[in-house]
């Protein structure tokens, strides 16, 4: 597998080895030793799947406390995926990395704890999978406004379909500083 490190510390793009044959394909979507060597030191404790239609945008979500690292990928369809560094004290605070994840490119994206994460669906539907390094805690869950101008994210959609929670999300500058995770080098 090929691992590419982002300029934002901790963010990884992983291209697993895909074994194609007449039947279709096979790939290992996570393997403890290899992904640890790639730089993911955290342990995964929860696995999630969501399905969404074209134009849906989920995000930008984070938990604090109980910050979750997420290994994300797509089983069907195509999404534009974004990780925003919201770690207080981080040299890259407020910066983001984006990537296209699809059933064809088989890419995985590692969003470390302390980031806000979101995606929008480019295909008719998309089945989105992710492993998390901490459990879901509804009371710690928060939503950062997807189109906060301060983030400068070049989303490929202009009027996405949002959840009620995400349509009421706060801009980064509107969060109480204590709500944001702390950078741990
Ligand atoms: C995320 C999550 C939600 N739920 C429940 C709560 C709610 O009733 C329902 C839908 O929740 P949400 O609207 O928060 O789902 P969704 O908008 O898909 O939330 C997800 O978005 C992406 C971008 C992420 O990064 C994830 O970590 C997660 O925050 O599912 C769980 O039971 N466990 C979970 O881990």
TrEMBL record:
Residues spanning the signal sequence: none
Catalytic activity: dTDP-4-dehydro-6-deoxy-alpha-D-glucose = dTDP-4-dehydro-beta-L-rhamnose
EC number: 5.1.3.13
Pfam families: dTDP_sugar_isom
Metabolic or biological pathway: Carbohydrate biosynthesis; dTDP-L-rhamnose biosynthesis
Entry keyword set: Isomerase
Top-level taxon in the UniProt lineage: Bacteria
GO molecular function: dTDP-4-dehydrorhamnose 3,5-epimerase activity
TM spans (from-to): none
Protein family (similarity comment): Belongs to the dTDP-4-dehydrorhamnose 3,5-epimerase family.
PANTHER family to which the protein is assigned, alphabetical: DTDP-6-DEOXY-D-GLUCOSE-3,5 EPIMERASE (PTHR21047), THYMIDINE DIPHOSPHO-4-KETO-RHAMNOSE 3,5-EPIMERASE (PTHR21047:SF2)
Subunit structure comment from the entry: Homodimer.
Stated role: Catalyzes the epimerization of the C3' and C5'positions of dTDP-6-deoxy-D-xylo-4-hexulose, forming dTDP-6-deoxy-L-lyxo-4-hexulose.
Full protein name: dTDP-4-dehydrorhamnose 3,5-epimerase
Taxonomy of the source species: Bacteria, Pseudomonadati, Pseudomonadota, Gammaproteobacteria, Lysobacterales
